[in-house]
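Handout, section B. The chain below has 71 residues.
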Amino acid sequence: MSRRFPVRNAKEVARVLRQHGFQKIDQAGSHQKWRNAEGRQVIVPFHGSKPIPIGTLKSIIDGSGIRSEAF
């Protein structure tokens, strides 16, 4: 059975990251850099309410170490 990834926008992803101990440490243009206490870092493209592409969301999920169900 294939695993489906949710469709999320940047605000929703930022909320999940914050709930799991990530803090926004920098922003360059529309890209925000988030890091947690363990040193894991992810870049989130912040384009308002536009959904984040699935491949980008997979990269954020893998980089954060958070289970996809949390998103």
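Note. The two ends are 19 Å apart (CA to CA). Compare this with the example in section A.
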